[in-house]
Amino acid sequence: MCGIVGYIGTKPVKEILIDGLRELEYRGYDSAGIVVLQNHQFSLFKAVGKLINLEEKASLFESTGFSIGIGHTRWATHGKPTELNAHPHVGAVSYVVHNGIIENYQELKNSLTHEGVQFVSQTDTEVIVHLFEHHLSNVGTPFEAFKATLAQLEGAYALLLVTASEDKTIFFAKNGSPMIVGRRGEDETFFGSSDAALIGKAQEVIYLEDGQYGYATAETITLFDPHHHALQSRFTPLSVTKLSAQKEGYRFFMEKEIYEQSTVLADTLMGRLREDEIYFEELPSDLFEGICEIKLCACGTSYHAAMVATYLLERHAKIRTSVEIASEFRYREPLLTPDTLFVVISQSGETADTLETLKMAKKRGLKTLVICNVDNSSMVRLADASILTRAGIEKGVASTKAFATQVSVLWMLSLHLAGLRQTLEASEIGRQISVLRTLPSVVKVENSTHEQLRRLSKRYLHGHGFFFIGRDVFFPLALEGALKLKEISYLHAEGYPSGEMKHGPIALADPELFTIALLPEHKLYDKTKSNVEELSARDSTICSLSPLDFDKADDHIRTHSHSDYMAEFFEMMVILQLFSMEIAIRLGNDVDMPRNLAKSVTVE
Ligand code: F6R
């Protein structure tokens, strides 16, 4: 997602900032900007799209001698990807770049607006620079104003701020989003939101802790803890390679992306949850007018997310909903009527089969919606409306965080529509919204769980196959668990509705058949349990996932007790992802680039 860089020194600042931003490109972004302060003059450049656009805008700018600068790549969350919404954000005499979310920005914005401050962007970040300048006009020094500003910010942030009266200083703070300060020799200071931006530049770094803040010049870094006590700067050498820096210490991108789900889900939900309604600012108000049916179309993992949506949309919004695999739908001469909303789901927005179904639906005059992770992708450009999932770039070929964000968007869509169609009480929508709010913590990986899965994986390397089974939304989750396993371990795995096993597949049951049973407490527990018992009676090896004890299992992964089955869904999703990954690692496979697979399938 967003990236931050900063520099104080005498080298060419523009090149250092843009080069640092380029190292953060892999995180995904849709606009970028830098500001340089030199000889009491600010030079600001912003551009939508790739860094090349920013380079073009700043092509005539050159710095000589001492200067300071900050830069940012932005992945739009609060407001569209426009130049006005791009960072750095501007006050009268100060500039700020920020990663994270200022949760109380609306409240702060209201009170600043009341005092006559004019906002030019739709972002939460802009309040920081105006709040700082508000304090600057009341207190003695920029540093005091900076401290007073931080005291009022709620939420997650990593931020850099520069102001005219301190033209040798960058103010910095970290709370919940990563920030690193680095130095080279005695007279250069660097900032980056990840190691990757600092490699080859800084020689040693400080990884800031939550709540730490301070200010830096070329020669000194002054650091404080959250209780305003001065801290000794403790540097560690920066010796990682570029690739390992991008993986942020994880063994594989897939692992990083599984761990990242907590933060990306927070981004997905941001600005969309109200007390008892879901708000999608991007949806045209008449999108659902005249619509009596929803048809979903997708491939692979996105198809599994779409399957989950069929349960949620019919259950919550009481609207007839069906789902199809895009490659089948294209050629089966489907009946399409204009009272159907056609929804495609795609991480990349480029998958050929899905894109073709979208074109078909458009040609037949249907209203279309895409749920996608990539702004400006072919599907986003083509569909009448789009909802971005905000997962950031997904590098692992096996999709993880994209699936998590797709399901959460689809769940929100079902509640949004339930509100419009008045098919759920506001109190029930409000209750589910409170469950949605817990998702970032539900998907946080606990060390003990990961360790259990790592140990368990050694027992599941051989055998003649896996069945992942579940009911209701846990059936598509079972399909997704099986797909993850086969993609990266090359072991044979199938997903099945647990009630369907006795209609044939149970013939395969024996100790060499591994059954991964999804037993949520709050969705058809007893029914699923009976199905698993049938398999256990035939000596299948059972690994169960449940918050409740299950004595027929050979291995049991105890999940947390949640108030709602959808929270159970998300916790089990993470476990299945880690389970597949640990098996694949033990088998020595390339987890990020499994054989025969491509990340974006742009052929039929
Ligand atoms: C599996 C996976 C694929 C994709 C499928 C559709 O881990 O990633 O199954 O889900 O190829 O891709 P998108 O979502 O980009 O349309």
Describe the structure.
The protein is an alpha/beta fold. 35% of the residues lie in helices and 23% in strands. The protein is globular and about 80 Å long. Helix 9 packs parallel to helix 13. The two termini are 30 Å apart. The protein folds into three domains: 245 residues, Aminohydrolase, N-terminal nucleophile (Ntn) domain (Glutamine Phosphoribosylpyrophosphate, subunit 1, domain 1, 4-Layer Sandwich), CATH 3.60.20; 187 residues, Glucose-6-phosphate isomerase like protein, domain 1 (Rossmann fold, 3-Layer(aba) Sandwich); 142 residues, 3-Layer(aba) Sandwich (Rossmann fold), CATH 3.40.50.10490. The chain has an eight-stranded antiparallel beta sheet, covered by helices on one side. The protein has a seven-stranded antiparallel beta sheet with strand order 5-6-7-8-12-13-14, with helices on one face. It has 18 helices and 25 strands. The structure holds fructose -6-phosphate. Fructose -6-phosphate binds next to helix 9 and helix 16.
> In terms of per-residue confidence, which ranges show pLDDT below 50 for 5 or more consecutive residues?
none
Strand content range: 15-25%
Globally, the shape reads globular
Q: Determine the mean pLDDT.
A: 94
Strand elements, count: 25
Summarize the biggest pleated sheet: 8 strands, antiparallel
CATH superfamily of the largest domain: Aminohydrolase, N-terminal nucleophile (Ntn) domain
CATH class of the largest domain: Alpha Beta
How many domains make up the coordinates?
3
Per DSSP, the total helix count is: 18
The rounded Rg comes to 26 Å
Q: Give the bound compounds.
A: fructose -6-phosphate
Distance between the termini: 30 Å
Helix content: 25-40%
